[in-house]
Amino acid sequence: MAADPDPAGASGRCAWAGQTPLYLDYHDREWGMPVGDDVALFERISLEGFQSGLSWLTILRKREAFRAAFAGFDFRRVATFGEADVQRLLQDAGIVRHRGKIEAVINNAGRAVELCEEAGSLAAFVWRYEEDPQAPRPAGPRAESPQSRALSKALKQRGWKFVGPTTMYALMQAVGMVNDHAPGCPAHATSEAARRAFRRPA
Q1: Domain assignments of the chain as residue spans, ordered by start
Q2: What 3-state class would DSSP assign to 34?
Q3: Residue 17 gets which letter from DSSP?
Q4: Residue 9 confidence (pLDDT)
Q5: Domain spanning 33-130+139-197 has what CATH number?
Q6: pTM metric for this prediction
Q7: Catalytic residue check, 43
Q8: Catalytic residue among 23, 31, 56, 160
Q9: Measured between alpha carbons, how far is 84 from 61 in angstroms, rounded to an integer?
Q10: What is the C-alpha separation between 40 and 42, in angstroms, rounded?
Q11: Residue 129 catalytic?
């Protein structure tokens, strides 16, 4: 989910968090917090791909079903999925039944295995594209950045699918590679502190 860094809403939180409990919990506990675990990163990449054209709330509501369907997003296991698994997933009403997106996750799982061999870990590769917190930021909301475009290009060159610049910027926002909480949002300081303490994958 690419969220605009809007001014804080009436609650002090980012305006996009709204009042839905699932959204609020995701905003308060997860969005913008650094993620360095490979499986967790693969899950986020996959879910951001599934979100394309849909609301993020739809994806959050189906998250546990996605985890069950895709072996907890253990990409080494997902990489072994075949056509029978595709058919199984297309019949799973708990997830988004979109053949292209399902096949993209399976394809990307194989590419993630290759990327681990190349870079040491998925996290080590992805975090190369972290936004410099000291760099000047353009005014107003944005849907992508130079870093997200570079990450998208690098992944596409390696055969990944559903990893466009907007999707990758949403990933960067979600996993703490950029802090897009509104300055007045309580989670902004929490995210910033976590980013400072986070040990970047080597």
Answers
A1: 33-130+139-197
A2: coil
A3: G
A4: 52
A5: 1.10.340.30
A6: 0.93
A7: no
A8: 56
A9: 25
A10: 5
A11: no
